[in-house]
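ARCHIVE CARD
Drawer: 12
Card no.: 0347
Subject: one protein chain, sequence and derived structure
Cross-reference: see card 0346
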Amino acid sequence: MSHFPNTRRVRSIACLCAGLLSWQFAAARGLEVVVDGAGDAAVVVALYAADGAALGVAARDRTTHVVDQVNKRFVPALTAITVGDAVSFPNSDDIRHHVYSFSPAKTFELPLYHGVPTAPVDFDVAGKVVLGCNIHDSMAATIYVLDTAVHTLTIDGIARFPDLAAGDYRVVIHHPRQVNDDGARRFAVHVDADAPARLDIGISLASPPAPELSALEARFKALRDEP
């Protein structure tokens, strides 16, 4: 019987240890942004370099996102994308919708349709894009087109960035109901190479507006309620 260790097994263990160390290092230099004051609402958290420069935009591929229409609602109601991305707007309802935006960052219309439009909509300018339906005034959603590729939405009030190089960053918070002059708040944070970073912030959101019926919806409701 050979007394020498199994070379393949030793190599596998070494690779596993190296992988664990690599994961621990990546986790150690990560960032958690804890947002208080938003309740159950998700908010957009975006990262920039300390001087405001974008991160990761040049080295990324175009992504196509999906904003569906279900039960006369946009799903999701809040989306964050990167400049150059596209969004598909399928209509999963059994009625037709007319999607539009008059926002400066993107003006477009998708006339009455059902199913999936033939092509997604391109978003090439950074900014806030408010969506509506020309038939159902209660339908509304927001897309933030960001000039940085490092962004996410909070889950249970926390945004996680698990793998960041050590350094100084600028954190920007977006939400359409944020009580703030321009709807965004900015914070500075430092990420160390050997310790996790955590940023606790508080924001205030205005109450959501009461849903309104369009003239067409009000007419149908009146007809339905007639004795």
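Annotation on reverse: The chain has two domains: 32-56+149-227, 59-147. The helical segments are 7-28, 215-225.
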